[in-house]
Specification:
heterodimer, A: 497 residues, mainly alpha, two-stranded antiparallel ribbon, 74% helix, B: mainly alpha, Helix Hairpins, 5 helices
Chain lengths: 497, 122
């Protein structure tokens, strides 16, 4: 059922608009957002693999009658292969990632409904718009279409930050918007250079033109376009020099919002990363560029995480640092490394959602995120402590959890690609991540409870506990049976390379 | 006489550089936002300049035109369509930034970026 492919974008957008219309009706908003959130993961399961041409505009080659009626310089040349309209491509990668993205989206919406007596319709609107935007980015085979939905995702992300109660949310939102307003147009200018060279913004068309030598892949204009698009990518994913603002963004949102923001960032990372990999795979040193910025992101973020006393900022930095693993997979550029990178991206979505919501429970109970003021919470809520501990183990790559499997694959790919130093760095960073997490866990749960610590809310919302159980169950299942998703990723990567 | 397309490309480059200067070096947040708008419009103008064709015609196929003549004389319509979408997105982000700037002004009583966006706020 290829017609279902655009529904993955259309349904959340329509639902978001409806939620805005019913903004005064709390029960309607709760029911509608819950129903939409539960329907969304079903759509990618029911959809068949294939292409969807908007407006029915298939390439001329697929329309023999029309092709024969056109002049020979069109019918016999590369123009006959060009995609006239916007194309959505739905393959195994999209199926897996969109399914899990919608699952995380559902869990975040469910947490919000459970935690708040009055569910803000505008917040639900932003969550659904964010989901729709990044889904469109993942599905789209059109780099300009990706840029447009990236900008929409940025505005939705800013809205999610503003929906929190943090004192500094407006300042961080403004900083993020300012950087976005530089990164976005630079990305657009890069796309403009590609358009000028190729005459199309369809990624498959651009790849066709480059691979057939119709555009010189070593020309200064092509390399300049790479530089501009790469800069936009760094901003969008929070790699240096944007790692600080990205972690600040995570720390200012409400926990369910932070979980969703990280999921959105991962999907943006992967969708733009794959586009860059496809278009610029022939550019010399592209892998070195990606590896360099990824390593810088990992090391800088981890260094900042170690020094933090605010657990929200700490998890934010750890989340940004973990994104570097995906970059390393892309940088190595082999089938195994790309499969591992995609698997790591999926794991990141699940693990950081667990940690954000888990530490969000601490914030809900104590109203503070300063680890120096916390302690002894394991006595209050041992079940939550165990789930958070498992989430931390998964992030650090402890077997048999999902983070272990993806990181093991990344280490194996680095070793098989003759980069043993990269493998060593990855293992060292995992160890430091583990130590940083244990520091936060010890401060919050294990050390004696400070006398002046007041537990303001001792009843943890059941919805949050349920969501954490589901997320950690996914971590365990993917850790024990990674082939559930890696086979699909591997199939996609095989076609990509 | 400078070529129109070259002039447009140079103008778009100037817009982007002026905008970057304003966004990075000017302290007033409203002027920063104006600078960011310059960058956005510079990128849009760059796309429009790409579509330009000297002595070309509007890309509408009219009776009496042959496909060959049309293909070699019309401007390229795709960037026009892209820029239209880009302008809408740019206007939306501009509106959000100005709204946040209003809230920040009410909160801090200042439009100085160093006051309201200082590192201490992170």
């Amino acid at each position: 059922m290829n017609d279902l492919i655009p529904l993955m974008v259309i349904v959340p957008i329509i639902a978001a608009i409806l939620l805005n219309l019913f903004i005064k009706y709390n029960t309607t908003i709760k029911i509608l957002s819950f129903l939409v959130a539960i329907v969304l993961p079903i759509i990618p399961i029911l959809s068949n693999y294939g292409l969807h041409y908007f407006g029915g505009h298939a390439p001329l080659m697929d329309n023999g009658t029309l092709l024969n009626s056109l002049p020979s310089y069109i019918s016999d040349g590369p123009l006959s292969t060009f995609h006239i309209g916007i194309t959505y491509s739905f393959e195994s990668l999209q199926k897996i990632l969109i399914f899990f993205l919608f699952v995380v989206g559902f869990l975040c919406i469910f947490t919000t409904i459970g935690e708040r007596k009055r569910t803000p319709g505008s917040y639900m609107f932003l969550m659904l718009m964010g989901l729709a935007a990044v889904t469109a980015m993942l599905l789209s085979d059109d780099i300009f279409h990706m840029y447009i939905f990236f900008e929409i995702a940025v505005v939705a992300q800013v809205g999610i930050i503003l929906a929190s109660t943090d004192n500094q949310r407006y300042e961080i939102a403004m900083k993020y918007m300012i950087l976005g307003s530089i990164g976005g147009p630079i990305l657009l200018t890069g796309i403009g250079f590609l358009l000028g060279l190729v005459g199309s913004v369809n990624i498959t068309d651009i790849v066709y033109v480059v691979r057939n030598g119709l555009v010189n892949a070593n020309s200064p204009v092509f390399l300049f376009s790479f530089g501009l698009i790469f800069f936009g990518w760094l901003y969008s994913v929070g790699l240096p020099p944007f790692h600080t603002i990205k972690s600040a963004v995570y720390s200012k949102a409400v926990p369910s919002g932070s979980a969703l923001l990280q999921a959105l960032s991962v999907v943006i990372f992967i969708s733009l990363g794959i586009a860059i990999f496809r278009i610029y795979s022939s550019v010399p040193f592209i892998g070195v560029f990606i590896i360099f910025f990824s390593l810088c992101g990992m090391i800088l973020s981890l260094t900042m995480a170690i020094m933090e006393n605010d657990f929200k900022r700490m998890i934010g930095f750890l989340a940004v640092g973990e994104l570097g693993y995906i970059g390393l997979g892309f940088g190595l550029g082999t089938k195994l490394s790309l499969t591992a990178a995609l698997f790591q991206g999926l794991n990141e979505m699940i693990i950081t959602a667990t940690l954000f919501i888990g530490f969000g429970v601490v914030l809900y109970m104590t109203k503070t995120s300063d680890i120096t003021k916390l302690g002894g919470l394991i006595e209050k809520n041992p079940k939550i402590a165990i789930i958070v501990l498992l989430g931390g183990f998964a992030m650090a790559g402890v077997p048999p959890l999902n983070g272990f499997q993806s990181k093991l694959m990344l280490v194996q790919s680095a070793l098989s690609d003759n980069f043993p130093e990269l493998a060593v760095i990855m293992i060292l960073i995992s160890i430091v991540t583990f130590m940083t997490f244990i520091k936060a866990f010890h401060s919050v749960y294990l050390k004696p409870k400070p006398k002046n610590l007041v537990i303001e809310n001792s009843d943890v919302p059941r919805s949050s506990v349920l969501v954490m159980v589901v997320l950690i169950a996914i971590c365990i299942v993917l850790g024990v049976v990674p082939t559930l998703v890696t086979d699909g990723f591997s199939g996609f990567v095989g076609g990509l390379i | 006489m400078i070529d129109t397309q070259l002039a447009a490309l140079l103008s778009s480059g100037s817009f982007i550089i002026i905008g970057l200067y304003a966004a990075v070096f000017i302290d007033n947040i409203i002027k920063k936002i104006i600078g960011l708008s310059f960058i956005e419009e510079g990128a849009n103008m760059f796309l429009i300049a790409l579509a330009y064709r000297t002595d070309g015609v509007v890309p509408i196929f009219l009776p009496g035109m042959t496909p060959e003549w049309f293909a070699s004389n019309s401007a390229y319509p795709l960037p026009h369509a892209l820029v239209l979408t880009s302008i809408v997105i740019g206007a939306s982000t501009l509106a959000v930034m100005l709204a946040i700037a209003m809230v920040l002004y009410r909160k801090h009583g200042s439009l100085s970026a160093s006051v309201i966006l200082g590192d201490k706020h992170e």
